[in-house]
Amino acid sequence: MKTRLRCLIISLLTLGLMLSVTPVAFAGSDAPAAGRKLVALTFDDGPGEYADDILDTLQRHNAKGTFFLLGHKVRTNPDQVRRMAAEGHQIGNHTESHPHLTECSDAAIQQEVKETAQAITKVTGLTGTGDTGFYLRPPFGSYSDRVAAAAHVPVIWCTVDTGDWKYRSARHLVHYFGEQIQDGDIVILHETVESTVRGLDALLTKLEERDFQMVTVEELLKQRGITPKPGEILFGAREESCVRQFPNTGVLGGATLLRRLLVLGFPPAKVQ
Ligand SMILES: [Zn+2]
Q: Which of 193, 184, 191 is nearest to 212 (CA)?
């Protein structure tokens, strides 16, 4: 009896010790470890000639990204889109023809979004995130409450705009943005910019050194308890949580301006 009691006590102590150990991220595990800093790197304007290079680099780092794709390129590069999906990256909508959506009619916005979504679905069988459809990254940062309402999907802008298409410097990307990125950021990069492809490996290494885990936009928002709804514009999931915008509320005008000022760019640049 005494032996059984001793065994029970030892078992309970062992169990307690196991439970008190902080959870760690295992290599190959996609679920972020508790307390880990998260960032969502996004790649616009593909799929194109650098897609496989980017996918190889992400794979080496066990990192996930989000690719906002153009409909006409999805139709011409279906294998790369399938690879993105197969390797656990998120696929988003960057419209069919890359227009300034604020200058489009509601019907034209819907057509741009629909054509691209259909192209992605045809190639991958995917239909987007939950029942909200594919997230939309508006070209040129051309968005408004009207655009978001007409598109009727979550609109994803960013908290960090690297302006990589303008600076075209792998060094700037790694040394400046590698340090500036914060927990909860959504970062705009371009799949089509050669310096980004060249700098990505070092950027990921730097972010790993800073204890970041690279996740999809969907995963970042989910981990931070944010469920995007159609017609919402989202910037990121930084702790200050003033990065979320609700359409058509009116009262948030000042806060919206503040959020826009929080978007990090160096120096502020118009984006592609
Ligand atoms: Zn673009």
A: 184
* Strand (E) or helix (H) holding 180: helix 178-180
- Ordered by start, the domain boundaries in the chain are 33-262
44 is catalytic: yes
Rounded CA separation 76/205 (Å): 32
**pTM of the predicted model, to two decimals?**
0.80
pLDDT beyond 60 at 159? yes
Burial (CB count <10 Å: 0-12, 13-18, 19+), residue 216: buried
Which position among 161, 190, 201, 211 bears the catalytic label?
A: 190
Marked catalytic residue, from 44, 45, 164, 185: 44
Supply the pLDDT for residue 32. Answer: 72
Question: How far is ligand 1, taken at its centre, from the CA of residue 246, in Å?
Answer: 23
**For residue 103, what are the contacts with CB-CB under 8 A and spacing of at least 6?**
142
Q: What element of type H or E holds 186? A: strand 185-190
Measure 98 CA to ligand 1 centroid, in angstroms: 6
More confident residue, 230 or 265: 230
Contacting residues for 105 by C-beta, under 8 A, at least 6 apart: none
190 given a catalytic annotation: yes
- CATH 3.20.20.370 describes domain 33-262: yes
Residues in Cβ contact with 112 at an 8 Å cutoff, skipping those fewer than 6 apart: 71, 95, 96, 97, 99, 101, 104
Report the percent of the chain where pLDDT is more than 90: 72
